[in-house]
Every structure is written in structure tokens, then in C-alpha cells.
Specification:
Elements (H helix, E strand, L loop, with lengths): L3 H11 L1 H30 L4 H11 L2 H16 L3 H11 L7 H11 L4 H10 L3 E2 L8 E6 L10 H13 L12 E3 L5 E7 L1 H19 L5
Antiparallel strand pairs: 1-2, 2-4, 3-4
Length: 218
């Protein structure tokens, strides 16, 4: 049996008009996403100092900068969230205190972020902190009570928390007992947060505020 990709390719090749429409639609999406990203960059670029502009331009024109831009391009083409696009633009203009590893981790993660997951992620750092001591970073709890008035059910929340941990946007539960439930259908899911995860949340909040108000958040 032929692989699905080969079958699909054969079908498209046998119907040139469908193939041409497919390619054109893909190109239009790519152009639109790059245009949105560049418009966000322009918004931030105008507020940068002359020194910051020169530093950014020198970085872009370096070999290291070229490799970095490849990662940006890949993320821009895969994200469906305008807030993520603005966050990438902020990161691109070096407007937040991220080291290179933080930047690479965030750029990789954005390829898997849609708006609903971003909405959920922005709630995670506001949950109650566990009172357990002698752990390497803060332990928070997502509970049935804290999410009872949202559209996310327990399966959504468990899936999203595990996905955010996989993307390194949240930390694993430092006590290694991630889920608790009882006979009354009350449940708690534990996870960790740290300085870097807070930076990611702050970046997305800043991007959200800029898009919502149309004003620059300094």
C-alpha cells in the first residue's frame, strides 16, 4: 500500500487545478503571516533607541542572527495566534529580558500554541500555591473549584497542563504526585512554575495588552 503522502501527492498531480489552488493558498497564508509579523515588528521598532536599533541590525546581519531568523520564520508560519505573533515580534526586538536559551525554548513552544491554549496558560500562574516547603520551585494547584466557571473541563485542563510542561512553559510537579481526586468529584492537578515560565507569561500578557489597546506597553 502506498503511503498516504504519496497517494495525496498523486491525486494533486492528477488534478493540476487543485494542486495549483493548494500551492497558491499556502503561499497566501505565508505572505499574510509574515506581513502580520513585520507590522508588529514595525510597531516596536519605532520605539527602540538608536543604540538598540544598531545592535539589532548587527545581530540580524550576523551568521548567528541568520540561524535565529530561520527559527522565527518556522514559528511564524506555524502559529495561528496573533498574540503569539506579537510576542515573537517583542522577542525579536529584544524588548524583554530573555537569554538565548529562553528565546529558543519560547520560539519552539509557539509552534504548538493556539489562542485557547494561550488563554489557559495565562491562568496557570494565578492559581493557589501549595504550602509544601523544601522544593526547588513553586508548586501550584489547578483545582475543580478554580476552573468551575470556565469552558475547560478536567480532561482539557489535564491535557493542557501536560502539553505546557512538554513545551517547557510550565514545570513538572516537584513532588511527583501530579493528580488528586476524591469521591465528591473534586480534583487537583499540581505543576510547577519558575522565573522563566513567569517571563513567558509576562511576554504573552504584554502582547495581549498591546493588541487589545493599540498602545505600546513599555
Amino acid at each position: 500500500m502506498e503511503p498516504i503522502s504519496q497517494v495525496a501527492y498523486s491525486v494533486l498531480k492528477s488534478t493540476p487545478k487543485v494542486f495549483e489552488t493548494f500551492i497558491k493558498a499556502r503561499e497566501q497564508i505565508q505572505i499574510r503571516r509574515f506581513s502580520e509579523f513585520l507590522s508588529h515588528v514595525d510597531t516596536n521598532y519605532e520605539t527602540m533607541s538608536v543604540e538598540d536599533n544598531e545592535e539589532l541590525n548587527n545581530f540580524i546581519n550576523s551568521k548567528e542572527g541568520e540561524r535565529f531568523l530561520v527559527n522565527y520564520a518556522d514559528a511564524i508560519l506555524q502559529t495561528t495566534s496573533n498574540r503569539v505573533m506579537m510576542a515573537l515580534a517583542l522577542l525579536y526586538c529584544n524588548k524583554d529580558d530573555f537569554n538565548e536559551l529562553n528565546k529558543v525554548n519560547f520560539i519552539r513552544a509557539t509552534k504548538n500554541l493556539d489562542d485557547d491554549l494561550v488563554d489557559f496558560y495565562l491562568t496557570t500562574h494565578n492559581n493557589n500555591i501549595s504550602d509544601i516547603t523544601d522544593i526547588p520551585y513553586r508548586r501550584l494547584e489547578a483545582t475543580s473549584e478554580s476552573y468551575k466557571d470556565t469552558s475547560w473541563n478536567e480532561e482539557d485542563i489535564a491535557t493542557y497542563i501536560n502539553e505546557l510542561i512538554r513545551l517547557r512553559l510550565l514545570l513538572p510537579d516537584p513532588v511527583t504526585v501530579p493528580v488528586f481526586s476524591d469521591i465528591d468529584d473534586l480534583w487537583t492537578i499540581f505543576y510547577g512554575i519558575g522565573k522563566n515560565t513567569q517571563k513567558y507569561v509576562n511576554l504573552l500578557n504584554k502582547a495581549s495588552n498591546m493588541l487589545a489597546t493599540g498602545n505600546l506597553v513599555k
